[in-house]
Amino acid sequence: MKKLIFCISFLFFSLSNFFAQTLMNETLTVLPKDVYIGDVIEIRYSFTTNINLTDDLTVDIELPESKDYEILSMILTGANGSYVLQASCIPWKVGALDLPKIDLSDYSKTLTTSFAIDIPSITVQSIVEKTQKKEIRPVASPLLIPGTTWLVYLIILLFIIFLALLIYLLIHTKKVISLWNDLVQKRISKKNLKKTIKQIKRLNKKSAKYSDSDFAKELSIITRQFLSTRFKENFNSVVSSKIFFEINKIFQDTLPESIEEKIYNISSILERCDYIRFSGSTEEEAIFSFVERSTLSENLIEAFTVLADQRSCNKS
Asked: Residues with Cβ < 8 Å from 182, sequence gap 6 or more?
């Protein structure tokens, strides 16, 4: 009788312990659905149980290393009988991927007996069997963005043009330097001409404020400043009667008669200004006539305009 009671008690205790550790509502989700060797897959295994596995909301699970797979991470989360096991791994073998059972009692402070979960098997497929291609594809040419070919051609063309220009510059160095000097000289001449014309026009606007001697002095200074800047030589101390010869010397006697006439006019105007300034005479010849100031100014502007565009033959 005592043996019967003992057997019944043991059976009742075993069944109670069994039902107390029963898993329910097991769900397995694998992403991606089609698993191939070398893919990083995400496993989500959820279940419920009528016991509290852990007091913590998050528990890191560790599995032994295997040549069939590589576990990147495995975490158990949840509480109060509802739990989720999330794992990230890489399979290295075709066929069934069977992860070892996990005894959660190793990670729980509340469990006193063994409580294992077994993640269902996962099928790992072979990409070779699916595609039926067993040979390695030949190396493909690099992918090009649309329009890249034309851009490459354009860069090559620009490089050829640049190289041709560089070779030309090396062969014609003296010619290029001369051309550059001419451009610089023209820029200086235009700037000098513009400045001189403004000075002459300003002098004529204030002509009434100047005596004949002062007007002649100012006009002479403006003229000599223009010539000094234009030819890069000091004309301030050149005698007025020698102006024509000095300028003709700079051009090495290569000027046409029309331009020589303009230079002669400059020299004559300077001589006229010197006469009015230094003669000390009170006769009519020693003063400017009614329209002579504006006439001399216009003649100078015309001569300066011609000289500003004329290329000199001196080394400067």
From this structure: 311
Q: Is the peptide bond before 256 cis (omega within 30 degrees of 0)?
A: no
Residues in a beta bridge with 71: 89
Closest to 43 (Cα-Cα) out of 56, 26, 57, 55: 26
Distance, CA of 193 to CA of 315 (rounded, Å): 21
* Other CB atoms within 10 A of residue 45 CB: 22
Cα–Cα distance for residue pair 89/42, rounded to 1 Å: 7
Report pLDDT for 198: 95
Task: Please check the confidence at residue 11 and state whether its pLDDT lies above 50.
Answer: no
Per the DSSP assignment, residues forming a β-bridge with 166 are none
Would strands 82-91 and 41-49 be described as parallel, antiparallel, or unpaired? antiparallel
Q: How is residue 71 written in tokens?
A: 């576990």
User: At 224, is the pLDDT very low, low, confident or very high (cuts 50, 70, 90)?
Assistant: very high
Helix, strand, coil percentages (3-state) for the chain, rounded to 5, are 50, 15, 30
225: its two tokens: 């400043």
- Arithmetic mean of pLDDT over the chain: 81
Q: Strand 102-103 vs strand 122-124: parallel, antiparallel, or unpaired?
A: unpaired
86, two tokens:
């999330």
Burial class (CB in 10 A: 0-12, 13-18, 19+), 219: buried
- Tell me: the pLDDT tens digits for 40-90? 999 998 888 877 666 655 778 888 888 888 888 888 887 777 888 888 999
User: Residue 242 corresponds to which tokens in the numbers above?
Assistant: 């020698």
